[in-house]
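Hi all, posting the design record for the shared folder.

TITLE: backbone redesign
STEP: 1 of 1
STRUCTURE INPUT:
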């Protein structure tokens, strides 16, 4: 499925430790997704692997990693009509779908297009984002407790991604140029704390727990070639600081941003218009 001639929206990298001592290496896989569906490529050795399709009927808009009970990685991936999970299965020695699909009957009312979701694990509550075209999207919460998902609040017009860390979830709204801040610790309750104005056309975002009662959010401005670093208080979602910068000269249409999690607090930004990735000091 990984094909240079196929359009992709993104990838998710999975890694599960070999054995209970976690010192023998890792089982690794790549989930790639786009308008044609999604596939997973598992690697048995360096440079060798096999691929299978996991979604062929609908576009897949996002895949977000989570950690399992032993630190085993998995992901939640979102097609237009369903939320599904992949998790490491020790018995089959593979990343497999666990059958926990959330679709029409799992929501309190009808929805339009599901675009993103985040969860702490395959059996944990899920925060889900719905796009409703020219109308404001919605944020849903499914508690994995037998009840149907309910609406938490508005996601803005043309919402794209949701990410969470440190008790805070953030949703990007491409058309409204804002982030919606949600207080959510991964449990069965969530509430919208407010919104934050950012660059023009935020798409990909990333949230990192700074460990001092705050979380840092990096977002991109696809239409004005900017990126914004926002620090939020985890207790109430209020803005501690916010800075917006132009991407380096030559960078065009920054689409996605991610924290480089090596202790440096740097950020990596992919620029769609100039076909490059830039790594920058966040200033934190």
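Okay, here is what came back for every position:
SEQUENCE:
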């Amino acid at each position: 499925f990984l094909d240079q001639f196929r359009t992709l929206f993104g990838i998710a990298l999975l890694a599960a430790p070999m054995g209970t001592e976690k010192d023998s290496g890792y089982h690794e896989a790549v989930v790639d997704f786009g308008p044609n569906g999604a596939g997973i490529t598992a690697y048995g050795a360096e440079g060798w692997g096999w691929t299978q399709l996991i979604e062929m009927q609908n576009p897949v808009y996002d895949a977000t990693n989570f950690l399992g009970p032993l630190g085993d990685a998995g992901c939640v991936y979102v097609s237009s009509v369903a939320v599904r999970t992949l998790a490491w299965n020790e018995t089959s020695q593979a990343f497999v779908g666990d059958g926990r699909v959330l679709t029409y009957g799992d929501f309190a009312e009808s929805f339009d297009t599901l675009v993103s979701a985040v969860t702490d694990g395959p059996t944990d509550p899920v925060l889900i984002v719905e796009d409703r075209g020219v109308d404001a999207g919605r944020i849903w919460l499914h508690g994995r407790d037998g009840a149907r998902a309910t609406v938490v609040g508005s996601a803005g017009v043309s919402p794209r991604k949701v990410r969470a860390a440190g008790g805070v979830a953030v949703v990007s709204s491409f058309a409204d140029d804002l982030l919606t801040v949600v207080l959510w610790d991964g449990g069965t309750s969530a509430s919208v704390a407010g919104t934050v104005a950012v660059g023009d056309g935020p798409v990909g975002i990333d949230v990192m727990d700074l460990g001092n009662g705050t979380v840092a959010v990096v977002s991109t401005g696809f239409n004005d070639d900017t990126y914004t670093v926002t620090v939020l208080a985890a207790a109430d979602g209020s803005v501690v600081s916010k800075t917006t910068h132009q991407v380096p000269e030559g960078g065009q249409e920054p689409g996605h941003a991610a924290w480089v999690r090596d202790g440096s607090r740097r950020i990596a930004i992919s620029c769609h218009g100039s076909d490059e990735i830039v790594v920058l000091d966040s200033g934190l």
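COMMENT: The mean pLDDT is 89.
Let me know if anyone wants the other runs.
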